[in-house]
Amino acid sequence: MSRALHSPWQWHVPRIDLSHTHWLTDSGSLTQKLKNHCQHFSVQRINQLSSPLSLSETIPMQLPRGRSVLQRQVLLICNGVPAVFAHTVTPIERVGRDWPFFNQLGNRALGVALFSNPLIRRDSFEYTRLCSQDDLYQMAQRALNGHGFDIALPSHLWARRCVFTHTRHANSRMMVTEVMLPSVYALQPTP
């Protein structure tokens, strides 16, 4: 197996098909956007466990590499087909105080909790183009394979990430990364 990479993250919106751009740039809840584009929406939790912070997450999270964080990975599914792979990290010791809802999510969407609280602020998006050697790409592929979805991913996937902070808690940080899977681009608004 080849060594995993970390594609560079950038602040500017990537040059992709204009009909796909809104999936990366929409400032609202991606969960709500997906619900508005399918008849049946569900969340499949892949895991929620302690893991070391990856190199590409150290600067936005303001934590040293290898620091233990609580990681949550889910598939956001529209009409029975995974549309987004989401990867969330936050310091373990901050969960109870800053994000008390986090451990009770199960197969519910994180976005609902984040966007319903006016005290939670989201920073600007960063974007990247993942190749098959990237950690996140490989996580997405393992999530699909491990949960019975036989989906051949293209050679590259677009992803976005942002950091959420709680305005009443100093140093609260939760980073949410969303990897767009091929089926998301075919979704149309539901009537």
From TrEMBL:
It holds the Pfam family Chor_lyase. Its main location: cytoplasm. Keywords: Cytoplasm, Lyase, Pyruvate, Ubiquinone biosynthesis. One of its GO terms (molecular function) is chorismate lyase activity. GO terms for cellular component: cytosol. InterPro entries: Chorismate--pyruvate_lyase, Chorismate_lyase_/UTRA_dom_sf. It is an enzyme of class 4 (lyase). Pathway: Cofactor biosynthesis; ubiquinone biosynthesis. It is found in: Cytoplasm. The keyword Lyase applies. It catalyses: chorismate = 4-hydroxybenzoate + pyruvate. Substrate binds at R72, L110, E178. Its EC number is 4.1.3.40. GO terms for biological process: pyruvate biosynthetic process; ubiquinone biosynthetic process. Removes the pyruvyl group from chorismate, with concomitant aromatization of the ring, to provide 4-hydroxybenzoate (4HB) for the ubiquinone pathway. Belongs to the UbiC family. This is Probable chorismate pyruvate-lyase.
